[in-house]
C-alpha cells in the first residue's frame, strides 16, 4: 500500500477500533470490516501501535484507540467538540422519558454516536453506544439525517447504496423500503426504527441542523418495544423535535471554526 491508499486503510482501521468502544476489537474483526487480509491488518495495527494511535491488550488480544489519539483529540476538541452543548439536552430527555438518549453526528455517509445518557427504565436497548457508526438510513439517527438531506442527494445515495445496505442490515433496508421511511420521516418530522436492527429494540430520532440549515447531527431515544408502541411513540417524537430545535439554536450560535 502506498500514498493515499495507505492513509485510507489506516483511517478505516482506526474507525473500526473506535466503533468497538470499551469492548475493543480483534485483528480478525478489523480485517473483516476493512476488507484487508489479516496479515495486512496486523501490520497496519502494529505500525499504528508503534506511533501510539492504537493500543493492544495482550491478555485479551483486543485493540483499543491509543493515547496519542487522546492527546490529538484534546487539541481538536476546542475547535470541533459540540457534545458539551448537547449533554444537558440528553440528560433532560433521559430524565423526562426514562429511555436512553443519544447524540450522533453526520460524518459523510455515516452517523457516529458521540454521547449518550442512560435512562432510568431497567430494560434498555443496547444497539447504540459512544463511537458506533452506522450508514445513513440505518438506525433512527441515520434515518433522520437522510430524510433531511436535499431530495436529489438522498435519492442518489439510496440508488447507489440500497443493495449494499440490504445485504448488510436486511431486506427492509433496501432502496424502496428506505425511500418509504424517508417519506414517512419527513411527514412526521421524526424517524422511527421499529426493531429493524435488533428485534424488540426500538428507536426514535430527530435531526439537528447547523447554522446553514443542513442536517449535521441527530438526537435519538432508544428502548424496548413495549415502551415505544402506540401513542407513546408520538409523544417521544414530539419531545425529541422540541429538544432538537433547542439544540439546533444553541449550536447555530457557536462561533464558526
From TrEMBL:
Domain IclR-ED: 68-253
Keywords: DNA-binding, Transcription, Transcription regulation
Alphabetized PROSITE patterns for the sequence: HTH_ICLR (PS51077), ICLR_ED (PS51078)
Keyword Acyltransferase attached: no
InterPro entries assigned to the protein according to its UniProt record, in alphabetical order: GAF-like_dom_sf, HTH_MetabolicPath_Reg, Tscrpt_reg_IclR_C, Tscrpt_reg_IclR_N, WH-like_DNA-bd_sf, WH_DNA-bd_sf
UniProt GO MF annotations: DNA binding; DNA-binding transcription factor activity
Limits of the HTH iclR-type domain: 4-67
GO BP annotations listed: negative regulation of DNA-templated transcription
Protein known as: Putative IclR-family transcriptional regulator
